[in-house]
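This section describes the prediction task in plain terms. A model, or a person checking by hand, is given the sequence of a single protein chain and must write out its three-dimensional structure as a string of tokens. No templates, partner chains or ligands are provided. The sample shown here is typical of the held-out split.
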Amino acid sequence: MTTSGTDAPAAAAKPAWRTFRDLPDLLRLLGVRLLSQYAEGLFQAGLGTAIVFNPERNATPAAIATGLAVLLLPYSVIGPFAGALLDRWDRRRVFIVANLVRALLIAACAGVLASGAGETAIFVVALAVGGAGRFVASGLSAALPHVVDRPQLVAINSLTTTMGAGATAVGASTAVGLRAIFGSDDGGGACVLAVAVLVAVLGAALSTRFPVGVLGPDHDVSGKHEKPATALSDVAAGLAHGALAAWRAPSVTAALTGMGAHRTVFGFNTMMLLLLTRHHFTDGTLGLAGFGSMAGATALGMFVAAVFTPFAVARWGRRNTVVGALVVACLTQLTVLSLNFVMLVVAAAVLGLAGQVVKLSGDAAMQLDVPDERRGQVFAFQDALFNVTFVGAVAFAAAVVPFDGVCRPLAAFGALLYAVAVGVVVLLYRRTGTAEAAGASN
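The expected answer:
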């Protein structure tokens, strides 16, 4: 459900909080998002604590990079196909089927983990779990413009996206707590994943409450007039279509550039912080608790971004908001050079804020400036960009970071990448094609 209007959410920011009460489909979509991302947090943290922070397993930089790649690369491999299908299928049906398939795959992963199998077998099943999750994640963003009016889209997107990130953080925290209850062995990890199965099933059940077709896409999805070969080729071309649609919208291209830079630096920092908290700080006793503190600070910054972004966009426009966030991120990254634990926690909060501001501004650009028939593909392309850059950055960091995580040159390189991104984003916004290219008033 979209209406005509300007991209100025200031007047709509306050009513946006009441929109959930007035629009039941929006409330249901929020519920599906929270359940989906809560299950994601349970699954990833449950698996992570069983692999990365298990003293009985090898937690070298290469092993950590492999684990993160396994959890995230399916997002990039499956994402383009998910985007193409989301623009062809009723998104309500996608949510139902994908959540049920994901529940079955998580149950299978729990069984493999409980059997005491090695990491290879666990990671193979985890790859499939991540692939099923892409259909839900991309569909949530693509469906939002169908359940909220255009003037409120930036504010509602900021709120729902950040609440979803918070649900992931809560899910991860729940997984850590459940590990203390169920035990730190493989059986305890399997019990955590079993809880994630139940949450995924609840997400599928809630998805059945949507009326057929209310979440889009706008065009005919019956497939009666399509040839199977044509449908298959469209699915295979999903990533290329998403990339082309993103390039045709300068505001989207600029935001994706900023997000790519942030995810690269985030990958550097993640590898460093995992090793610092495990081996460097306080004689290596911080471990999961130390990394959890930094993850919590990042989540706090993302929550602040949910409140800040709509007002920043209304006051300065998406262009200036994105550029300003990248400048702040660049300056903050320089403080990582101190390798002081307290400073790193503060930096994590600020970088979480800046990165989420860029992402929320990019989401708004994709929802406002991309046609609905390509929106799912563009969000899938964003997923691919997010995870390819992150995994590539983690792999690079694993090759250059010492065992204790102390690598100031890599932190400085991250600040340089932010600085380069500022210049590139400014140039991209000067391209013609959107109101954002002409000024910062939108």
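For orientation: The two ends are 21 Å apart (CA to CA).
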